[in-house]
Amino acid sequence: MSALIEVENLTRVFDVSKPWLNRVIERLPKALLTAVSDVSFGIEENSVYALVGESGSGKSTIGKIIVGLVPPSSGKVEIDGVDLATEPEGARRAAVRENVQMIFQDPYASLNPRWKVRDIIAEPVSARGGDTEGLAERLLEQVGLSAQDAGKYPHEFSGGQRQRICIARALASNPRIIVCDEPTSALDVSVQSQVLNLMSDLREELGLTYLFISHDLTVVRHMADKVGVLYLGTLVEEAPRDTLYADPKHPYTQMLFEAAPRMDAFGRDIDPPKGEIPDAINPPPGCAFHPRCPIAVDRCRKERPRLREVGKTRVACHLAE
Length: 321
Ligand code: SF4
Ligand code: MG
Hints:
CATH class: Alpha Beta
Structural class: alpha/beta
Subcellular location: Cell inner membrane
Helix content: 25-40%
Number of helices: 11
Distance between the termini: 28 Å
CATH topology: Rossmann fold
Protein name: Peptide/nickel transport system ATP-binding protein
Keywords: ATP-binding, Nucleotide-binding, Transport
Radius of gyration: 21 Å
Order of helices and strands: EHEEHEEHEHHHEHEHEEHHHEE
Shape: globular
Strand order of the largest sheet: 6-7-8-3-9-10-12-11
Bound molecules: iron/sulfur cluster, magnesium ion
Membrane topology: Peripheral membrane protein
CATH superfamily: P-loop containing nucleotide triphosphate hydrolases
Organism: Roseivivax lentus
CATH architecture: 3-Layer(aba) Sandwich
């Protein structure tokens, strides 16, 4: 059975050269940042797939590629068997628009402050000339707010309520897939679990599929069926949730579990672990994790480990048994 979303050999390279520097120093080589490097995974319908990693690991870029906000440099994304890259622009947009919505970290920044909530929620449908009669009111109730809230403005709501409004807007076009990029990390811990529970309930009621992007291993444990761990744009480990939490096999995943309490709400290291700061422009040769890996051997500095199956886990480490 093929998955609802298939990501194959996905790579995204950004040109991060500084134009002003290029004017000063002629023929400066381009600075290329490989944000996503040869990543493959599948997401089954009506499941939650979490991508975890530190900031800069490439998880948001993968989310943006799947919703069509960023094109891949190479590799492909298939949604329900449709290869987005080979579709003409119009069909590609339609496939994404009909199937995929995105929820962002900051619910305030993504809501137009001058629009009433009714218009914000109905916008994805009204933009296509669809029927929006009573739509916002129905969706507000579905996300645990009240129909009367439709006439208010975003600033009249708390952070958690605003994220519910974002969820209502995402639901307006009846998507099958929602890409959630750190959907609760800007919220108070007490509000986080309410929003996460709402998302779980909606998945069951509506048969939704989530790509859940997070640095927070506690939140991921609560939400995910399967977890992929990213390091410097590479998928280093993937396993069903319980397998990963019981027996993390990659030294980086193990380090993440140890470092978890040291991260702030945005996944930045408060107290960075030993080792060089990874540089995605000049990644280390061999296993990109070797400068920070406590068990690295000579082979790790020369040969890039490929993902291979160990039990129910896929892991990219020469030494994983
Ligand atoms: Fe560590 Fe080597 Fe495994 Fe990379 S391949 S994680 S350096 S042991
Ligand atoms: Mg991010």
